[in-house]
Specification:
It is built from seven helices and no strands. The protein is mostly helical. The chain has two domains: 35 residues; 56 residues, no CATH class. It is rod-shaped and about 95 Å long.
Length: 122
C-alpha cells in the first residue's frame, strides 16, 4: 500500500488495546490451532490405521483343511478362482453334489497358479 492510501484511511474506531494482538489473542489462536489439528487427525485416522496383511496362500489352504470335506472343496474352489484358475470338470461335479472331491489335486492347481492372480495375463 502506498503512503497516500494509508494517510487517507480513517483511524480505527476501536481502542488501541483492541487493535494490537495481546497474549490472550495468541492463546486463543493456539487453542483454535489445537482444535483444528485434532479435527484433521480424527478425519485422517482411518487412513492412518495399520491394516492386517491378508493370509498367504498356504495359510488359507491350511485353514481350509480344518473344514468338513464339502466345505473344504468349496473353499479351495474359491481360492483357485481368485488365483485365476479353473476347477476341473470332475471336481466341479463333486462340488455340486456335495462330495469330498480330491483336495490334493486342487491344492496343487492353486500352488501352481499362486503368482498369477485373476485379471493378469498369464
Amino acid at each position: 500500500m502506498t503512503p497516500e492510501i494509508v494517510a487517507s484511511l480513517h483511524p480505527p474506531r476501536l481502542p488501541e488495546a483492541f487493535a494490537a494482538p495481546g497474549w490472550d489473542d495468541l492463546l486463543a489462536a493456539f487453542g483454535l490451532g489445537l482444535l483444528l489439528a485434532a479435527l484433521v487427525l480424527a478425519v485422517a485416522m482411518p487412513a492412518l490405521r495399520r491394516r492386517p496383511r491378508p493370509p498367504r496362500t498356504r495359510e488359507r489352504i491350511a485353514l481350509a483343511a480344518t473344514l468338513p470335506a464339502p466345505e473344504r472343496l468349496l473353499a479351495l474352489a474359491r481360492l483357485l478362482a481368485e488365483r485365476g484358475g479353473e476347477l476341473p470338470a470332475d471336481q466341479r461335479q463333486a462340488l455340486y453334489r456335495g462330495q469330498a472331491g480330491d483336495p490334493g489335486r486342487i491344492e496343487a492347481l492353486i500352488l501352481r497358479r499362486r503368482n498369477r492372480p485373476k485379471g493378469r495375463a498369464a
